[in-house]
Amino acid sequence: MATTVEGAGADVAPAGLRLPGVVLGVGLGGFLDGILLHQLLQWHHMLTSTDHDHIGVRYYDPHTVSGLEMNTVWDGIFHVVCWLAILIGLAVLYSRVTRDRRRVWTSRVLWGWILAGWGLFNLVEGVLDHHILGIHHVRGGPHQLWWDLGFLALGVLLLAGGLLLQRSGRPFDPEAPAGQAAGDAR
Fold first, then answer.
1. 119 touches 32 (CB < 8 A)
2. Cβ(114)–Cβ(25) under 8 Å?
3. What is the pLDDT of residues 114-133, one digit of tens each?
4. How far apart are CA 162 and CA 156, in angstroms?
5. CA atoms of 115 and 121, how far apart (whole Å)
6. CA 181 from chain center: how many Å?
7. What percent of the chain has pLDDT over 90?
8. Which residues contact 117 (CB under 8 A, 6 or more apart)?
């Protein structure tokens, strides 16, 4: 809702979609990572590379029952963090958009920020867990560096694509009536 402050002539920008979009993207990207790479493909779990990590975490061999149990617990903690990110993103979005929510969910601006958040997830998680801490890799083995670099490259593409998508969206005020573009929702 772009309004003018009486007498000052300054526009008040509407609450943006950037924060809720990025937080939703982080949560959704994390869920996709956990479901696809941890559960379906079983390429890694949260602690599968701790036999040669950089911080001295005890090794939990995912090929033993006790090791798989501990890795599953840490995968669950990871999923709790992803779930909390989604809940927080939805709560922030809900607090900022009180009318015509369908228009927000179909906007390029929101989906661009969600893709950017997913890309940020890949970049931060990839650099931190795969390279700095070394607690797991996308796919362990002789070519693990290439898999890890591919994961980072995907993060860069998602971030860049998300930024381009949100920039191509029509600026709008999520509080304004449909059809009225009043202010920038970024």
1. no
2. yes
3. 999 999 999 999 999 999 99
4. 10
5. 10
6. 28
7. 75
8. 21, 22, 23, 24, 25, 26, 27, 28, 29, 162
